[in-house]
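Long-time lurker. I teach an intro course on protein structure, and each term I like to show students one example going from raw sequence to a predicted 3D structure in token notation. This year I'd like something fresh instead of my usual example. Would anyone be willing to generate the tokens for the chain below so I can use it in lecture? Attribution to the forum is fine with me.
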Amino acid sequence: MTRLNQRFGFGLLVLAWVAAMLAGCSSTSLNRAPVEDRPARAPASTPAPAISVTPLPAAAPVAVKQPQGFENAGKPGYYTVKPGDTLLRIALENGQTTQDIARWSQVENPNRIEVGQVLRVVPPLGSNEVVVRPVAKPGAVAAASSPAAASSGAASSSAPASQPAAADSDITWVWPASGAVLAGFDEVKNKGLDISGNAGDPVLAAADGRVVYVGAGLRGYGNLIILKHNNVFLTAYAHNQTLLVKEDQSVLKGQKIAQMGNSDADRVKLHFEVRRQGKPVDPARYLPAR
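-- Reply from a regular --
Happy to contribute to a lecture. Here you go:
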């Protein structure tokens, strides 16, 4: 009995020791300092290097190219080019030749003018240019050499160059074609006379003069010839089939200069214009009665 008690007591001691060990382990585990999960600190950022900015120099003002002759815009005797203009049309409307306007305005290429360009459309003062050089008629040289002719010539040279009455009376006219008049003059609808005929019929110079244009560069006129008779009068012959003269050629009244046709027209006809200082006038006022 005593031995049993001893064994039992020893067993209790062992159990007590085990319990004490377990309690110690538990207490150690429960009393551990808590672990704090902290994110890793990012290293301090290195400041960006300073960027040196050099200011751009102030832009120089851009020079605006002005059209040729702009300083003369609005002055008498000058014309400012508008959209759709051609040098030929400007010359016809002002009673001048394209060559003269190009020379007076220092235009290098007559086929290239720009909107806003300013052209001189009257001769420079003091130029005393001889505009028309008609072929002398038989006997003209002898008549001019007489004292009376010399004195009258001296008197006329001292008179103003553009006297309308003298310019009108200096020219004798003939009909440029023999056909009937299809359409008369109208300042808006028809700036001349339309004369009927057949293809190939002769077209005649209406008065002595000089050829200042030959070509098809004016819309609505087809194959065109323009004659200059003096400082006041031009005549135009449109819709031709064949052109028989060259620019700067002198022609006589009644000389055949073209053959009638229908270029840029709805039928064969001659469109004939008389321009007085560039303005269209009724040719019937000047042509002889039939």
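Some talking points for your students: The first strand starts at residue 78 and ends at 80. Residues 2-30 form the longest helix (29 residues).
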